[in-house]
Amino acid sequence: MTEKLYKVLGYNGESVNGGNGTWNRHGKWMPPIEGELVACENGYHLCREGDLIDWLGPTIWEATYRGERLDCDEKVIVREARLLRRVKDWDDTTARLFAIDCAERVIHLGDEVIISCVLAIAYLYAIGEATWDELDAANVAARAAAWDASWNAAWDAAWDAAWDAAWDAARAAAWDASRGAARGAERKWQKKRLIEYLRM
Hints:
Blueprint: E1 5-9, E2 44-48, E3 59-71, E4 76-86, H1 92-104, H2 112-126, H3 132-145, H4 153-163, H5 166-179, H6 183-198
Antiparallel strand pairs: 1-2, 1-3, 2-4, 3-4
Helix pairs in contact: 1-2, 1-4, 1-5, 2-3, 2-4, 4-5, 5-6
């Protein structure tokens, strides 16, 4: 089976997570990169399935490459690349639900009642059954009741899941949750859960 590679982009095909330029979203090859391939400096950057957790953004695309390839810890650098198709199962709702999943994994590290309420409203907002005003009201009430917990990992993850932009919430909540738990085991769970969402 051929390894799947991905590219994370903004809503209009623009590079996110560093880099610049806009990718062709119609299956055409990007212009070949000249010179030596160097991570974070020269080359098209793609990621493997297990790398996605570190590069989340508004859209995820399946991608392919040809020619030279340089493998790094959390990415792949190639000379030529093209997008194949957008991963339709990754959208604002999926991103927010994934963020909530990550936060729920460390709920026991903070005030469980307050954090559960925050996540319940965040969930309703994610599926379109709560308004932004309701989410904001929950924010104000929860902050007033739990100001002293605002820096622990569980609260940070819940906060991210509820109020950040959806894809940014997913990345931030995953980071905060893994910071508050055994990092290696938590990252392994997050990678598996993320792929489950992408294959729904």
